[in-house]
Specification:
By secondary structure, the chain is of the alpha/beta class. It contains seven helices and eleven strands. The chain has helices at 14-28, 74-93, 102-110, 132-136, 195-204, 216-223, 229-242, and strands at 5-9, 35-39, 55-58, 97-100, 115-116, 121-130, 147-153, 156-157, 164-169, 177-180, 184-187. The radius of gyration is 17 Å and the shape is globular.
Length: 246
């Protein structure tokens, strides 16, 4: 029997979590029967047995790694500790993983890279360029260079973790996508992002410090015209590469 994909989410709000989950399924071309959904912000971080899954996908979150420890809510501390334990096995085994936005920060932090607000990006679309390694990577090969993505984050990995390979970059945020070993990926941008999903997030997070709250409607109108199919192809290719067939 085929093993499912594990989708780990860290969004406390049902609206943003449900929208993100639906977009991952849609652009990854995944059926619900192929996935196990885990919202770790709703309960204790469970022990994850990697041999039960074919790959892991992690989405975004309003939790900031760069927040001082004393100011982090208890559930965030539980989540961060849970990911540290998960990454110990995952990196050792080179287990297939795709961390998007917060997933990138959590992985980079585990690998010793500083995560700060130095390379924050406003909500919207940007272009990212491929490195030589990126042009040769199976998730990125033959994509346009540069290509357009949707992003929006208050913090990012400042420098490439020492054991990682840089795959995509731009001047606003130098570490846009990286790979560890052969199967562990992280993107600062959102490969599942689209105008509909970002509209949900803009409305929910308009008072969370990503942008001035009075600019929410303008941002919604701006992202409404964005089209990022190449970012979606990254998610699709990840699923295709690791999907198991009977």
């Amino acid at each position: 029997m085929s093993k499912p994909f594990l989708i780990i989410q860290l969004r406390p709000e049902d609206a943003t979590a449900d929208s993100e989950f639906d977009k991952i399924l849609h652009y990854g071309e995944l059926e619900k029967e192929e996935v196990v959904r885990l919202r770790v912000e709703t309960s204790d971080f469970p022990e994850i047995h990697l041999d039960h899954y074919t790959a892991i996908i992690v989405g975004g979150s309003p939790f900031d790694i760069s927040t001082p420890a004393a100011a982090k809510p208890p559930i965030q501390q539980v989540i961060e500790e849970g990911f540290k334990l998960l990454f110990e096995d995952l990196v050792r085994l080179d287990f297939p993983f795709l961390g998007c936005c917060s997933g990138s920060g959590l992985l980079g932090n585990f690998l010793g890279a500083p995560v700060t607000r130095k390379y924050a990006e406003p909500v919207g679309a940007v272009e990212v360029s491929l490195t030589e390694a990126g042009r040769e990577d199976p998730l990125l090969a033959d994509l346009p260079d540069p290509f357009r993505v949707l992003t929006g984050h208050k913090e990012a990995v400042d420098v490439l973790p020492g054991e990682a390979v840089l795959l995509a970059s731009n001047s606003q945020c130098p570490v846009q996508m990286f790979r560890v070993r052969k199967n562990i990926y992280a993107t600062q941008f959102h490969p599942e992002g689209d105008p509909e999903g970002f509209t949900v997030r803009i409305n929910v997070y308009k008072n969370h410090g990503y942008f001035p709250s009075e600019s929410a409607q303008r941002l919604i109108e701006t992202v409404a015209h964005e089209h990022t199919p190449d970012a979606h192809r990254i998610l699709q290719r990840f699923v295709q590469r690791y999907r198991q067939t009977d």
